[in-house]
């Protein structure tokens, strides 16, 4: 077995362990919360205690905590998330459209800002000390350090309420009744609602990619291989292209990590814009203590982060020969 294969197996084992820890934390924290998902039903008089006991038995909540935990792990391993307690629907039927809505908003925003911000950062780093570099660093750092819900509220006030250019909330108009994903996402009504949250997401992500690209080009600018290219008579833009290409690995790695954390970072964005995504659904499920729904949503998010970290480690080890695959870390 090669060093890289041993490195891969080690990272896979760590990922499995992290996943087990994450889902165990989810299970424990939910059961430590005060109250239960049935209190509102009892208080409102919709169900009596006998009916509540029957529902608890149906969901296995009357069993010991260890039996519940084993059943919970079994359901996650088979991706059988069960039924939502308060919605009386299969959990996946609730989460699937929300997951797609989140991906439709966040993945294009991440790809767009990764490309544009990286190109701008490379150009700013090549022209170190210029007004462009100073302005881009200050503006993107300000946007990145500002909580995303503050930026979202500011954009809603300016562009939705004052200028009335775009809608403030939601993914479509109340009267819209699209049939299927194509009619939903390939419509002017959707695009009209999409512009504002998409723009805020792009601006939120921009600072990290810009600074990574800028720092990479600054480091490469005085390198020997660029001096050789300069001696060969390459233009400034050709030298910049080569410097940028050689500084792409940290950007690629960060993009992979950011893709895995795409849901967690912008849950508040979905809440502020009332975007029907998995982040907003998770917030509502926590408020209602809908155990199966919360467990499945957090499991999907945690799994995405862990798999993204695994992919980033593998990419770095594969493409960068300076990374040790025998003991882990960078040389």
UniProtKB/TrEMBL annotation:
CDD domains: TM_PBP2. InterPro entries: BPD_transp_1_N, MetI-like, MetI-like_sf. Keywords: Cell membrane, Membrane, Transmembrane, Transmembrane helix, Transport. One of its GO terms (biological process) is transmembrane transport. It holds the Pfam family BPD_transp_1. It comes from the Archaea. Signal peptide: none annotated. This is Binding-protein-dependent transporters inner membrane component. It comes from Haloterrigena salina JCM 13891. The lineage of its organism: Archaea, Methanobacteriati, Methanobacteriota, Stenosarchaea group, Halobacteria.
